[in-house]
Design a protein that fits this description.
Distance between the termini: 168 Å
Strand order of the largest sheet: 2-3-1-4
Structural class: alpha+beta
Radius of gyration: 41 Å
Largest sheet: 4 strands, antiparallel
Helix content: 55-70%
Length: about 220
């Protein structure tokens, strides 16, 4: 008779992946050396851009701070030192002159006609007179000297390493220069050595300026 059917061979089953192994990435997902280089260049560029931006911000802040310091020490109308700037250079020079036993002198200048000009022609004319006087002082003073507008019609000059007699000669030249520019002014000078300190010399120069103003007024009355 017919025997039992022969058994069917078992179907092959796929092998399970080994535990802990990742599947092979597709070939097109593998980064090439060129891709790595591009990524590194892009990262470096971002870092450099951030550093450059930070440095530019820092430099801008430093420039703004310098402008603020400059503005705080200078008169906006004339560009000369203002009272705060004058006080600083006077203190600095007093310390230097005291340490090294150096001479120094001060000149105080007062414009004679500012008030009458303001009353007659307005403050724009007075401002122009102040600017012209500042221009004369700027040309007259030496490179190491300092000139300032102390306020109103009053100016000052710090004459570095200058004796009292040389300061008198400088004041005479200044009077001529101002007169040539059509500016009437009274000038007084004083030396540091004769007065002990530069702040005391400022007071003495101020008194000398008022004495000069009184003398000029008497001379004008005598000529009238």
């Amino acid at each position: 008779g017919v025997g039992p059917p022969a058994p069917r061979p078992a179907e092959a089953t796929p092998l399970a992946p080994l535990v802990g192994t990742a599947p092979e990435p597709p070939a097109n997902d593998v980064a090439s050396p060129r891709d790595h280089l591009r990524a590194e260049v892009a990262r470096t560029a971002r870092v450099l851009a951030a550093l450059l931006s930070s440095e530019l911000v820092r430099e801008a802040a430093l420039r703004e701070a310098a402008r603020a310091r400059l503005a705080a020490r200078h008169d906006p109308l004339t560009g000369l030192l203002n009272r705060a700037g004058w006080d600083q250079v006077l203190a600095d020079e007093e310390e230097r002159a005291s340490r090294y036993s150096l001479p120094a002198a001060v000149a105080i200048i007062d414009l004679d006609e500012l008030k009458s000009l303001n009353d007659a022609e307005g403050h724009h004319a007075g401002d122009e007179l102040l600017r012209r006087a500042a221009d004369v002082l700027r040309i007259w003073h030496r490179r190491n000297d300092h000139v300032a507008r102390l306020g109103g019609d009053e100016f000052a000059a710090l004459l570095v390493q200058t004796s009292e007699s040389d300061a008198l000669d400088a004041a005479q030249r200044l009077r001529r220069d101002l007169a040539d520019a059509g500016i009437a002014a009274s000038v007084g000078t004083a030396g540091r050595w004769a007065n002990g300190t530069l702040p005391h010399a400022v007071l003495a120069a101020d008194r000398a300026m008022y004495a000069d103003k009184r003398q000029r007024r008497r001379a004008r009355r005598d000529c009238a």
